[in-house]
Amino acid sequence: MNELDGRLGDGDLGATLQKCARNVRAALPTMTDDLGQVFKTSAMACTKASGSSFGTLLAVAFLTVAKATQGRTEMAWTELSPLLASVLEALSARGGASLGDKTVLDTLDATGKSIEGVDDPADQHRLATEAVEATITEFRGKPNKIGRARMFAERSIGMDDPGMIAFRHLVAAAGTGN
């Protein structure tokens, strides 16, 4: 991830994801059954891990989910699509990116739409994986339009966006339970 990010950015995406994951895992013993608290604790773990843009976006995503799930101990699978839509809105507001800019938002949007109304977690994972892959392929031939990568817009054509690839890994990990 660092190598991919280094082609268009500052090359710290892999390290950021690793630090966030390490901090979230370390916080697991302190988490309660309250989903909102789980996501809030995860957001704080990401905030402590990194000041990078992707670390900040992860924290914003977790905080958005925390607000929606506060006080709850379970959630129906069919709630995931609207929840992803609210995360998309929050990330767009925070980062200033829009759909079509060739960012993680595009894979997030495709994922949310692909699982809308689906209540089986295995089907959701399969559909999300397919949507992420199709989105990465669709945007590979387009330039990045925002962030540090926009400075290399022409050079970014034919390259995968690091945030999209990071999201691919997050979706894959969600399917394994890790």
Automatic annotation (TrEMBL):
<feature type="domain" description="DhaL">
    <location>
        <begin position="1"/>
        <end position="176"/>
    </location>
</feature>
<dbReference type="InterPro" id="IPR050861">
    <property type="entry name" value="Dihydroxyacetone_Kinase"/>
</dbReference>
<dbReference type="GO" id="GO:0004371">
    <property type="term" value="F:glycerone kinase activity"/>
</dbReference>
<keyword id="KW-0808">Transferase</keyword>
<dbReference type="InterPro" id="IPR004007">
    <property type="entry name" value="DhaL_dom"/>
</dbReference>
<dbReference type="Pfam" id="PF02734">
    <property type="entry name" value="Dak2"/>
</dbReference>
<dbReference type="InterPro" id="IPR036117">
    <property type="entry name" value="DhaL_dom_sf"/>
</dbReference>
<dbReference type="GO" id="GO:0005829">
    <property type="term" value="C:cytosol"/>
</dbReference>
<keyword id="KW-0418">Kinase</keyword>
<dbReference type="GO" id="GO:0019563">
    <property type="term" value="P:glycerol catabolic process"/>
</dbReference>
<protein>
    <submittedName>
        <fullName>Dihydroxyacetone kinase</fullName>
    </submittedName>
</protein>
